[in-house]
Amino acid sequence: MGNSRSGGGGLIITATFLCSFVLSQLPLPRVMDWARPEWVALVLIFWVLMLPHRVGMGTAFLVGIILDLIKGSVLGLSALSLVTIAYVTHLLHRRILMYPLFQQGFLVLVLIGINQLIFHWMQMAVGMTGNNALFLLPSVVSALFWPWIYIVLNGIRQLFRIQ
Amino acid sequence: MRPARSWLSLAVTPLQWLVDLPSRMAGEVSDLVIDRRILLTDNAQLRADALVLERRVQQVAALTAENIRLRELLSGRDRIREEVMLAELIGVNPDPFQHQVILNRGAEDGVHEGQPVLDAGGIMGQVVRTTHYTCRVMMITDARHALPVEVNRNGLRSILLGQGDLNEMVLDHVATTADIREGDLLVTSGMGGRFPRGYPVARVASVVRDPGRPFTIVTARPTARLDKSRHLLLVDMPDTRKAESAAAVTADIRKIQVTEPGDGQ
């Protein structure tokens, strides 16, 4: 905590978030429309799990606002859902880290599910329509992606000794 | 709130360019390594197309002149020519509930909210939000979009609603006795004052007359290639401020008409 490389770590964390923004906007084949992993939420969950003392709800809020600007949704919608899951992750981070990777995947499924639910409920509240339960599909896909995200990001974390 | 958002969005504009970069680079690479023979056939094809289009333009010039004369006889208002701006697609909203695309023109280029967007096939949508260098376009198939149209064949007016499906839209409240058939072309009626009149929008795909229902169920398929077009046109709607330029347009078209060979009047 607070070692000499923490500044560099900040840069790396920012870079991973930037990558997740780009991935979240990347055009995918039409079949993948509904099954796009929630990259930003996944990266956020990882950093909250690993560095709960540095990445928390403040970061989640900032990231959410940027995501809203990119998505063009009402300012603060993604911020609200991301802050909520950052809070839950923060609350449970000791327990989640004890689980094996695939079991963590189930928790990620729940977390991203909460994220999607909040986002779409709020979307409905501001007048968007959509009568399709498929919006929950990204939580399943994200859970399947979780072990790989974890391995890659943990590799990066260890490479740059971010603590 | 709007200007604040516009300024904040300025910060994420580079990100949107970044997302578009791979596909733009792929396009440039394929331009570089393209086969000479393909270029030659393309060229020949384009020449042929240009010839056909030129012939049509000649006809249109004559018809426009005639139209203006007739309108003058009826002392009606002239139709004013719209100005267009070319734009390129740089992003698509990944949220499947929203049919939105992002274009590389913004408020700095004179784009404003509510501006109609077209591609080669017809109406695509309208600008719903602008930032300094980009704008966000809601497509006509978005579930929140409605568009006043008329049947090109007989002028029957209706409202075309988006359904959140790229290939299907529905006509609202069509009477069971209405004269509408499969294959009818729907064009903008210009009633809302937002879209210019007479641009193709969709083709009627199915007409179901169910005696148990108060209205005919009419579905239509957009004529614009909503998920394929990359180069789009932003149309500047003529308004009353530009009415004085109408006279200039009339004179302009008269000039064309004089050079027209088959002009008998």
Compute the number of structural domains of chain B: 2
- In DSSP terms, counting alpha (H) and pi (I) runs of 4 or more, how many helices of chain B? 3
Measured by residues with Cβ under 8 Å of the partner chain's Cβ, the largest interface is: A-B, 29 and 27 residues
Task: Please report which band the strand proportion of chain A falls in: under 5%, 5-15%, 15-25%, 25-35%, 35-45% or over 45%.
Answer: under 5%
Radius of gyration of chain A: 15 Å
Give the fraction of residues assigned to helices of chain A.
over 70%
H/E series of chain B, N to C?
Answer: HHEEEEEEEEEEEEH
Total count of helical runs of at least 4 residues of chain A: 6
Mean pLDDT of chain B: 83
Broad structural category of chain A: mainly alpha
Output the CATH homologous superfamily of the largest domain in chain B: Rod shape-determining protein MreC, domain 1
Helix content of chain B: 25-40%
**Beta-strand percent range of chain B:** 25-35%
Largest sheet of chain B: 6 strands, antiparallel, barrel
Shape of chain A: globular
Distance between the termini of chain A: 6 Å
Overall pLDDT level of chain A:
88
Q: Which CATH architecture of the largest domain in chain B would you pick? A: Beta Barrel
**Shape field of chain B:** globular
Which oligomerization state do the chains in this entry correspond to? heterodimer
